[in-house]
Amino acid sequence: MNRNIKLLFLLATATLGLSACSKTESNTAHLQIRMTDAPGNYEEINLNVKEIIVKVNDTTGGSYVLEADKQFNILDFKAGSATPDILVADEEIPTGKIKEVRLVLNETGNTIKVDGQLYDLKIPSGYSSGWKVKLTEEPSLTPGFAYSLVLDFDAAKSVVKTGNGKFILKPVVRGLAIATSGILTGTIDPANKQAKVYAINQANDTVGTVSDVATGYFSIGGLRSGAYKVAIDVQDTTYADTTLNNIEVVAGKTTALGTLKINLK
């Protein structure tokens, strides 16, 4: 099943921004999987990542495959460096509590360089379902938010040298999830005067939605932290449009604007 459905798009024009509105109220969250390295005494450790399996909640069928298909030297990505991590997967998954994450590697294409010599990194049999990531906690994914799950690969503990000079790969990986976006919500009053609502950041990137004609409620998700201008474009031309300035959005939080009363011209 292809779950690569995007939650929103940062768009150059407000009109195109409306194409993202239906996703912000769905029961999905945007999840990026990134990898970084806890250093080891090797010149290269080249990983051929096939996919990441994420289990949400404890229900049957709650495991979701995030396709990766990435090959890279994990030692190139260290916290505090110019390249602290690498993006491995980027998809939408259903919301809920992450119960388990597994790192799945391809059987071939994994290598290690020691003293200028490149060796194959063998994967033990029986690991087709991957290695379980040690989560620092079981993070809850909230609808409309974007998250980054950082997989910290421990190079020193993940490689085993055998007596005959071969190298076996048994990944030891720690996982930490952080929210990377926030949500804007509000209610248009009167509700039956439906409005297009736009969140515009300082780079003029625009994300939009449409208020509910019955309740007036609107929600714009997946917004990066920062200051936004909120523009309310009322569809009934007898009403004046409204603009709110310097609305702060914080990652992992909902900025509730409350009831926004619109007025006749």
Key traits:
265 residues, mainly beta, Immunoglobulin-like, 2 domains, nine-stranded mixed beta sheet, five-stranded mixed beta sheet, 54% strand, disordered N terminus
> What's the structural domain tally?
2
Largest sheet: 9 strands, mixed
Count of individual helical segments: 2
Please, what is the average pLDDT?
Answer: 86
Can you give the helix content as a percent range? under 10%
Oligomer, anyone? Answer: single chain
Range of strand content: over 45%
Characterization of this structure:
The protein has 265 residues and is mainly β. The protein has 2 domains: 27-179, Immunoglobulin-like (Sandwich), CATH 2.60.40; 182-261, Carboxypeptidase-like, regulatory domain (Immunoglobulin-like, Sandwich), CATH 2.60.40. The chain is 3% helix and 54% strand. It has 2 helices and 21 strands. The strands form 4 sheets. Strands 2, 3, 5, 6, 7, 8, 10, 12 and 13 form a 9-stranded mixed β-sheet that branches. It is elongated and about 85 Å long. Residues 1-25 have low confidence and may be disordered.
Write the topology of this structure.
Blueprint: H1 14-17, E1 28-38, E2 44-56, E3 63-73, E4 86-94, E5 96-105, E6 111-114, E7 117-122, E8 131-132, E9 134-135, E10 140-141, E11 146-154, H2 155-158, E12 159-161, E13 167-169, E14 173-179, E15 182-189, E16 195-201, E17 206-210, E18 217-223, E19 226-234, E20 242-249, E21 254-261
Parallel strand pairs: 1-11, 7-13, 9-14, 15-21
Antiparallel strand pairs: 1-4, 2-3, 2-5, 2-6, 5-8, 5-10, 6-7, 11-14, 12-13, 15-18, 16-17, 16-19, 19-20
